[in-house]
Design a protein that fits this description.
10 strands, 8-stranded parallel beta sheet, alpha/beta, 12 helices, globular
Length: 351
């Protein structure tokens, strides 16, 4: 049973022989490998993006957001200039060109090569429609739009979703196993919007993505940071296969297992803020065991996540200027990976 089959079985609750691992920055130990279309963003050289993308200034992405990054270059930075602060400028706003064949040049070959070595291929959509919309309008305006400009907001988001659906369709032609997107919906204390608003406005848009994927035999991976517990039932009902949480302690590991275990596959790491940042291997190991026992006792339903230490390397100055973990080093990364290997067997099914 190779890594690809182990991941597929984990997502489908079909008794894989071990808990799969996705490890960013170390392809040899990861059961998952990512591929991406050519995207015009602020973190690559223009010549590495789609040939038709011509940024007007440094830090501009193809949605016209202007990003600023720290000098270390270790983080994605933040949007500092939002391109659509006034709805009167909507008529002159240029949406990115789709031009699928140019964006996906070479991706099929890479996907086939990854499959040959037995790994699960996850096709990246990138930032989800909520992250993009907040970048384009600004977070305060985006929240205000829910109440004052809802029709305009919904129409704009639907344009983003349409773009993402076209990406999913091409990933289906290419033959990836899953597609991923990243939309942070939580603060440290709760969600950004009420569960009712999320359900009534955003759920159907995610369902459009998951349905497009399922028609093509593709699984879906939804990353969301913060306290998003109240949205989880609707995320699952929208058809999401994998929920990626990096703060399981914040959400409550036992609660996740009791309320949603067996209904969705969790892609989880040791809690970045509450546990991993302590640098205490004993605490990290105990949380690994806790995650596996609570979330992995459903004949699957759990993928463990990790990163090379240089990816989360920091200077202690916070997210915007260099990272968010002060104590994550090679020793801690190796210790967490060792715990994944040592305890990464699915417990006996409890339901």
């Amino acid at each position: 049973m190779d890594g690809r089959e182990i991941v597929l079985r984990a997502v489908l609750f079909e008794c894989p022989e071990r808990v799969p691992i996705t490890w960013l920055g170390q392809g040899k130990i990861s059961d998952v490998a990512g591929v991406s279309y050519k995207i015009g963003n602020a973190w690559i050289r223009p010549e590495d993006g789609p040939i038709f993308w011509k940024p007007k200034e440094q830090g501009e992405d193809e949605w016209h957001c202007i990003w600023r990054r720290p000098s270390t270059g270790r983080t994605m930075g933040q949007v500092k200039i939002h391109p659509l602060t006034d709805w009167d400028e909507l008529s002159t706003y240029d949406f990115p060109e789709t031009r699928i064949s140019e964006r996906f040049e070479g991706v099929k070959q890479i996907t086939d090569e990854i499959h040959k070595v037995g790994k699960y291929v996850l096709g990246g959509i990138g930032l989800g429609f909520w992250e993009l919309y907040r970048g384009i309008r600004g977070t305060e305006s985006a929240i205000t739009d829910l109440y004052r400009n809802r029709d305009k907001m919904v129409n704009f988001i639907d344009r983003i979703v349409d773009f993402h659906v076209e990406l999913v369709k091409e990933y289906g032609v290419i033959g990836v196993d899953g597609v991923s997107w990243y939309d942070d919906w939580g603060t440290q204390k709760g969600g950004m919007v009420s569960p009712e608003i999320w359900r009534n406005i955003f759920k159907s848009r995610y369902k459009g993505l998951t349905e497009a994927a399922k028609k093509r035999g593709i699984q879906t991976f939804f990353h969301s940071c913060g306290y998003v517990y109240d949205y989880i039932p609707d995320m699952i009902d929208a058809g999401v296969d994998m929920l990626n949480f990096n703060q399981p302690e914040l959400l409550g590991i036992d609660n996740l297992g009791q309320d949603f275990g067996g209904d969705v596959c969790f892609v989880a790491s040791v809690d970045l803020q509450r546990t991993l940042d302590t640098g205490k291997l004993n605490d990290i190991t105990n949380e690994v065991k806790h995650i596996i026992s609570a979330l992995g006792c459903f004949d699957g339903g759990l993928i463990l996540e990790g990163w090379n230490s240089d990816i989360l390397a920091v200077d202690g100055a916070g997210w915007e200027s260099g990272g968010y973990l002060q104590n994550y080093d090679v020793e801690i990364a190796n210790g967490m990976y060792g715990a994944y290997l040592r305890f990464g067997k699915y417990p006996r099914r409890i339901i």
